[in-house]
Amino acid sequence: MGFPVSRFFVARFRLVKCTLTSGNVRVSEAFLELEQINVWRGDDAEVAALADVTLRLKTGESVAVLGPNGSGKSTLLKLLTGALRPEVKDGSSCRLFGDKFWSIDELRHRIGVVMPEEVARFEPHEVAFDVVLSAFRGAYGRTREMRFSRKERVAASRAVDRMGIDGLIDREFGALSSGERRRFLIARALAHDPEVLVLDEPSTALDFAASAELGSTLRELIGCGHTLVLVTHDPGEIPPEIARVIMLKEGRVMADGSSRKLLKSARLTELYGLPLRARWSRGWCEVRAED
User: Fold this and answer.
1) Residue 6 above 70 pLDDT?
2) HSE-up (13 A, CA, CB side) for residue 208
3) 277 DSSP β-pair partners
4) Is the pLDDT of residue 101 over 60?
5) CA nearest 95: which of 8, 21, 158, 36?
6) Can you say whether residue 234 is alpha, beta or left, with left for phi > 0 and alpha for psi between -120 and 50 degrees?
């Protein structure tokens, strides 16, 4: 039985305009350094959500964090964005942009995050451009009651222009397609011109066409010099431009290395605990369950 054609192969047009600024040119500096860290989710947790994790992520290198539900992906994301902190113990350390101590406000400017649940945090009648502006207040909704400087409006306009959605800024957010809403959320994450862009399960709730456009968008963002951290459970979402994959399983780093070496049948079968068959085609990894 043959493999289905990847939904990303049908992307037909460019969505992102390259505008490289200071946030995109710092190359090879570590923005996340973890050394033997444990992270617990709740006081009653009996097992660490992340256990003995050692990891180093650099600007200028896009990576995919891959694993099944419950593998620790969301915990790593919260650690990366400063929402969680690791257990303090001898021999462990956690640094973000070289610092052991940081503030959420500072990280919000340096790391842009796109999560699928953000769509529901905006009222359907919210003006699409206001969704992007909300990034400057760390808020969701009620932007009509807020005042924004000319500098902030220019930055939001630049992010919208990068995503190729400037013709939709006056529409109501709820009237946009699922793919258009996701692109506005990416523009929102880009408004601060962050050094790192994190996308958590970006194709969740997207239809075939929207997923295809999203795949093209991710490729363009990397091509424009953005550092992406793609958090996903689906190997088929990982674009060819991402050459490094970090596999998480049961809160531990199962493997960390080249996507070509790790995205193979045996490795993926071990990661997900069921027989899988992988095949590469045009730079994408296609995976299906064994018959």
Assistant:
1) no
2) 6
3) 288
4) yes
5) 36
6) beta
- Give me the helices (H) in the chain, please: 73-80, 104-110, 128-133, 150-162, 178-190, 208-223, 259-262, 265-272
Rg (CA), the chain: 19
The answer to whether the beta carbons of residues 229 and 63 sit under 8 Å apart is: yes
Report the DSSP beta bridge partners of residue 286: 279
Say if residues 176 and 125 touch (Cβ distance below 8 Å): no
Distance (Å, whole) CA 97 – CA 117: 27
Q: What is the DSSP string of 210-236?
A: HHHHHHHHHHHHHHTT-EEEEEES-GG
91: left (phi over 0), alpha (psi -120 to 50) or beta: left
190, two tokens: 């880009």
Place of tokens 């992406």: 228
From residue 262, give the alpha-carbon distance in Å to each of 57, 152, 175.
Answer: 18, 42, 41
- How far is CA 26 from its chain centroid? 19
pLDDT over 50 (residue 97): yes
Statement: residue 5 has pLDDT above 50: no
Residue 70 C-alpha from the chain's centroid: 17
Rounded to a whole number of angstroms, the distance between the first and last alpha carbons of the chain is 9
Would you tell me the crossing angle of helices 178-190 and 208-223 to the nearest 10 degrees? Answer: 20
Summarised one tens digit per residue, pLDDT across range 52-64 is 999 999 999 999 9
Tens-place pLDDT, residues 212-223: 888 899 999 999
**Rounded Cα–Cα distance for residues 152 and 104 (Å):** 19
Structural tokens at position 164: 């190729």
Residue 251 near residue 262, CB atoms below 8 Å: no
From the list 242, 233, 183, the residue with the least C-alpha distance to 213 is 183
